[in-house]
């Protein structure tokens, strides 16, 4: 059995069946994605709009594409026709644009709020209060073509196990509150280095790149 398939099934067997694996295919070539597709996997995550569009055009249309990177407002229109889930919402202005573009395509686009749960400067996200402000905003409540269905967060890359546990616990606590209040059902947390801990704290979606694909294989122009 080839490496990618072997890694996938090894991880799949080690986690609860209810956990959804999001294969982070950023900078991976088409053939690597096809290997997972051929064994039945359909959920793939990208960080950059142009790279996602290039792969969308070349790969089967039943793939569920997830945007996990922070994108600029003027890029949202390019993914509105096909995006399955946006994990990285941090501004109500983005929701307004998504709502507008989704309406053009007669779609309702699901999104997650990205919450900052660690202190590392290279990690983006919003505070709990900023998330509350979005969820309680009347402008958002009047949007018909966009829906927030959960939360996403990234733990410290270089943190101790105790630190990572505290970060995941904080996001799970907020998620539990939102689950009761807004019927959220997606908690996207955990990557290749910490997904086992994330699952302990209630993650429903884990985002795996190197643990599935190995080292990144290509470099695609990132901006349109």
What's the arrangement of secondary structure elements?
Elements: H1 3-14, E1 20-24, H2 30-38, E2 43-46, H3 49-58, E3 64-67, H4 76-79, E4 85-89, H5 92-104, E5 109-115, H6 128-135, H7 138-141, E6 146-153, H8 161-182, E7 186-189, H9 195-200, E8 205-208, H10 210-213
Parallel strand pairs: 1-2, 1-8, 2-3, 3-4, 4-5, 5-6, 6-7
Work out the strand percent: 15-25%
Main β-sheet: number of strands, strand sense, barrel status?
8 strands, parallel
Number of DSSP strand runs: 8
Number of domains: 1
Which CATH class? Answer: Alpha Beta
Features:
TIM Barrel; alpha/beta; 8-stranded parallel beta sheet; 224 residues; 41% helix
Word description of this protein:
The protein is of the alpha/beta class. It has one domain (3-208): Alanine racemase (TIM Barrel). Helices cover 41% and strands 18% of the residues. The chain is built from 10 helices and 8 strands. It has an 8-stranded parallel sheet.
